[in-house]
Amino acid sequence: MNAGRLDSVPIGRRVAYWRGRRKLSQQLFADRLGKSKSWVDKVERGVRRLDKLSTLQEIAAVLRVDPVVLRDPDTQPVELTERHQGVERIRAALCRYEIPLGRPAGRRPVLPADRMARQVGYAWTAFQHARYAQLADLLPDLLTDVQRTHAHQPGPGRVPLVEAYRITAGLLVKLGAADVAWLAADRAMLAATGDRSLVAAAAVQLGQVLRAAGRAREAQSLLRAAAYRIAPSVIEYGTPPELSLCGTLLVQAALAAASHEGDSATAELIDEAAGMAERVGDGHDHYRTGFGPTAVDLARTAVAVESGDARAAIGWHGKATGRAGWRWLPAEHRAAHLLDTACAYLHTDDPTNAAHVLLEAERTAPSEIRYRPAAWDLLGQLARDPYAPTTITRLATTLGVG
């Protein structure tokens, strides 16, 4: 068999081809993999499928080839498939209207509001630790359960309902599904109506969704309105939760403004947020915002990238990561910032530092790289650079990023 014509050959036959090239018997190959000879035979005959990326990597390591050489070119990478399936499961859950239609709950019990709040808290923890695949599996049932709880206990069930929709919108933005995220964020806003703090919290995710959907002007208008609605009349009298919500909304408004307005409007918004951050301090997570002086410096990095000032972005990155508050931020927040910084380095024609920062993001929160379309785009750009470190090309090969 010609090695150059392997693309059209089933994966099992490719394994057999490379095993023959390496002069390994089925038994010896099986021993090195820690498998049985029967297992190898079934793989090579196509009786057993190779669905797990980890198994494919082990086989490639024994055969001394890149995993991409074995992978079927018509088969999507595992992460891409999981991302698509996760989005579709959540979409299906959002398309069910069991409560308005009076459908029975089936065998699943209706959870009391306090227990539902704990479940939602667990989901937030999964999000902040960037466990996106786990969260995508969790959310469909969580959305159904939280709607039922709210129907039976409208008062105490309201906060878990809004928070569940916020998490859903946040995850879907990460996964590149802004259209479905918009539905979740819209429901969060509707459920929050009448509660000023809940509306402000839901507006954070709605602003992110609008930006992801390319509606920066609408996002800025919404975010500013929500920020000034929750803002205390005198900043010195504002509570940390109020200031955290208001400051986060102003930061998001600055990010929206950076894409279509001048530097003065952006700087005004983020400077106002910085003043509030100083009063809140680092190490807090009011309304799951992580707001504080370090978060504002991270936002200045993102704003500078959005505005096209890569060198300023790198400077703010150095200041932010030098703060004590950097290590207190959730893994998701830190990894997302590192992606912004990698973009900044790439824009200054420094692929080496861009690669180092991207790999640091992958160590901090692997799912931030493996499931986000934006991260794949960045990884693909770096992998095509002739000066990219081998660790980057290896990661790109593993994920099937071209």
UniProtKB/TrEMBL annotation:
Pfam families per record: HTH_31
CDD domains: HTH_XRE
Annotated SMART domains: HTH_XRE
Signal sequence, renumbered to the chain: none
Entry coiled-coil feature ranges: none
All residue ranges annotated as the HTH cro/C1-type domain in the record: 15-70
Protein name per its UniProtKB record: Helix-turn-helix domain-containing protein
Protein species of origin: Micromonospora cathayae
